[in-house]
Amino acid sequence: MNVLKNICSLHGSYYDNFSMQKKVLVTGGHGFLGSHVVQQLHNFSQYVVFAPEHALYDLCEQSEVRRLFADVQPDIVIHLAARVGGIGENRQYPGQLFYDNALMGIMMMECARKNHVEKYINIGTVCSYPSQTPVPFSEDALWDGYPEKTNAPYGIAKKMLLTQAQAYREEYGFHSLYLILTNLYGPKDNTDVYSSHVIPALIRKFCTAVQKEERNVVLWGDGTPTRELLYVGDAARVIVDSIECTVDTFPINIGSGEEVSIAELAGIIAEKAGYHGTISWDTSYPNGQMKRKIDSTKARKYLNSVPEVSLQEGLDKTIAWYKTIQEDLSVLV
Questions:
Q1: Residue 211 is assigned to a structural domain of this protein
Q2: Domain containing 134 — which CATH number?
């Protein structure tokens, strides 16, 4: 009981008198996407939210996963805990990215099944799609080839969990949903110089250049790849809404419909950050997958998924947030 009260108190959930509420366990609830999902869940009185700190339960240890389920006894699980990173992180730690994501996901789903969880929501990644997938990416193309090599171990680990969910539905009648998110961005994202994704990396570089009055910013690759970008608040809203979705398991793409090249994105962010110097491209670094744009037809049909935040508005929000923490980060560089 004390464990549950402590977990609830971290997020302002009401623990007392919740016998009629559904207990929702959010792994990774203190991370980038997870913190936004937890915030959205608090808008619904029918849910009581459990989002334990990573230090309380090591999800790569089977005994710890079992202890988590014994402590919380959730009705619904949203599994967001993951090890993620940009191209640099994927190149340096491919083994760890594969092992951690596959192991966490497999054990979490198995414990959810054994504990008779009513609904299990698993989050996939656009990195699972084959490197030469026709644009826009359709869910039917997910198994048509090997992912882009710079993030293949991560992408394949996440795709394994779709197979697990489908097998569990067939054998056990396990109720799960598998959502494939396109590239996310927004406040609270990872801004680490070496492990962040493209938008926080660009924001940090241009804001730092302005702060230090630098006249040239060097970016990786050649700027030609394109990405479809989804504001984290929109992603969180769809995930929470999907709790009531009546379909099971098969993958559903979640995107914004807005595709932009890295070079164009860099120009937009530079202008919004107030940077007026030159931009150079270091082509000794890989571009990653050349095009990423997904088909969100199923999301609109089954989840009524319509993004509310445009790229321009989302970048304004993200840059404004970054500037509030910029001084603290500059001490770490």
A1: no
A2: 3.40.50.720
Phi and psi (nearest 5°) for 194? -100, -20
- The number of domains in the chain is 1
The range of the structural domain enclosing residue 126 comes to 2-185+229-257+290-308
Residue 315 belongs to some domain of the structure: no
Among 233, 249, 250, 248, which Cα is nearest to 305's? Answer: 233
Distance, in Å, from the CA atom of 316 to the CA atom of 333, rounded to the nearest integer, reads 24
pLDDT digits (tens, 9 = 90+) for 133-172: 999 999 999 999 999 998 899 999 999 999 999 999 999 9
- Specify burial of residue 65 (Cβ count, 10 A radius: 0-12, 13-18, 19+): buried
Please report, rounded to a whole number, the percentage of residues in the chain having pLDDT higher than 90. 77
- The mean pLDDT of the chain is 90
The Cα 270–Cα 216 span in angstroms is 11
Quick check: is 269 in a domain? no
Burial class (CB in 10 A: 0-12, 13-18, 19+), 284: exposed
Q: What is the pLDDT of residue 323?
A: 93
154 included as an active-site residue: yes
Catalytic residue among 47, 129, 154, 168: 154
212-222 CB burial, b ≥16 within 10 A, e <16? eeeeebebbbe
* Angle between helical axes of 198-212 and 262-273 (0-180°, round to 10): 40
Residue 275 lies in a domain: no
| Residue 314: band (very low, low, confident or very high) from pLDDT cuts 50, 70, 90 | very high
pLDDT band at 9 (very low <50, low <70, confident <90, very high): very low
